[in-house]
Amino acid sequence: MKRHAKKLAGLHQLTGKKATEKLLERLQENEDVLIETIRQLTAVVKTNSPVAPAEEWLLDNFYLIEENVRTAKRHLSRGFSRGLPWLESGPSAGLPRVYDIAREIISHGDGRVDLENLVSFVQAYQSVFI
Questions:
Q1: Dihedral pair phi/psi, residue 3, rounded to 5°
Q2: What 3-state class would DSSP assign to 45?
Q3: How many Å apart are CA 121 and CA 5, to the nearest integer?
Q4: How far is 58 from 64, CA to CA, in rounded Å?
Q5: How is the chain split into domains, by residue range?
Q6: CB count, 10 Å around CB of 97?
Q7: Interior CA angle at 10 toward 116 and 97, to 5°?
Q8: Secondary structure of 56-110 in HEC code, one letter for each residue
Q9: 10 Å Cβ neighbour count for 108?
Q10: Distance CA 89, CA 13 (A)
Q11: pLDDT tens digit string along 83-126?
């Protein structure tokens, strides 16, 4: 993960331009998709059809996701990401750099994020990109 963080930092190029704020809009879209998914899974469970372990986990733990979405909506202002550094190129061009960092941490950690790995990744990233 540390090697990947350093490589990522070497690839990131920042722009002085600020794009349109999309954080809260994307959060709402993702919440809508999750709510619809829960609705469909609940309907499947009511028919006594089997569900995959991941689907069962989502049903059992959706309240945690809802809580985090509420927290994000409460604490993130509409212009929150305007003050962040934005990427000029690459797959996340036009988005705040932190979006790409988070995406890379999640995808290269097989979806598992813990404090130790997060801190390690960010420190390795910052050792290159300061």
A1: -60, -40
A2: helix
A3: 6
A4: 10
A5: 1-20+81-130, 22-78
A6: 21
A7: 65
A8: HHHHHHHHHHHHHHHHHHHHCCCCHHHHCCEECCCCCCCCEHHHHHHHHHHHHCC
A9: 14
A10: 7
A11: 888 999 988 888 889 989 999 999 988 778 889 989 999 999 99
